Amino acid sequence: MFDSTDVPATQAPAAGWTPEPEPGTFTLTTHAVLRTVADPLGRLRDFSGSLHLTSGPRTRLAEGAALLRSLAEWSKRSATSLNGPIGPHRRWSWAEASLDDVKIVREALGGTVNDVVLAAITAGFRALLLQRGEDVTNRVVRTLVPVSVRSDSERGVYNNRVSGIFPGLPVSIADPGDRLTAIAGQLSMLKGSKQAVAGDTLVKLAGFAPPMLLSVGARLAARTPQRALQTVTTNVPGPQFPLFVVGRRMVYSYPYVPIMGSVRISIAIFSYCGRLFFGITGDYDSVSDIDVLRDGIEAGMRELVIAAGGPPGPAPRARRKRATRAAPSRPVSPDRQAAVRSGKR
Hints:
alpha/beta, eight-stranded mixed sheet, globular, Chloramphenicol Acetyltransferase, single chain
């Protein structure tokens, strides 16, 4: 769909294709029996490999201690107004940041790109909660952060080996530098605890459950209120060179991620051509103040740049609202004007 230059690529004519013969009953039965035997063996092999991710017992003890510390993070109280029933309609807004600003913050304050992005998002949620009058003292916003659990041999392979970690965004911290330090330390601990790998292992073990039980469990999980999780933040790295469609350059690429269950807000981030593009999805009825979150994210990034000794940057751009055009007035006859003046209908 996309080209790397403004000259559209010409596609070669498709080669001839002949479908394979339709398999018979015996072939289908044989393949089903083989899969029934081979799939559990493969899952056991993956599970046993997950139990031996490290070489020495000392390292395993350190990972176990980190896992216990990560579980202790769940004892922190979370924000309350971010969970609840959601309706059928959505609100969507967007924010932007520069990767050059992220580089300035990383060089001065440390952390990774993901740490800096989450610190800016934390500032946005802090602004949203304070605007709602909610107490943020010693509170966090629990978020799901998808991470890759591919092995070294799977680098460059596109598959679904993705699990998640659940950091608590420290909305109680007002200082941008301290906020970034807290997030960087927490993510480092979560990665060291192998929390994401443990989740991936549980997914593999799900292959041993009957499909009917899995479907019932999935429906039950979707209907159960998820009070422990307030949002989802997913960061997708994109190309840092321009892309073209039929000779036209793609200037912006704002992502969208849906909401479900009792999670009323989700945020996706996509990097492209030196810019970070945030797509913010919210429930229409309960997140009418979604622009407060959006402005808070951009303000949080500017705070980080200033704390890192960088330039303050330009003022936030005003979003132009779509103008509403009045319906054209129809000419009124003299008789109608006289009737209106006399009070007749």
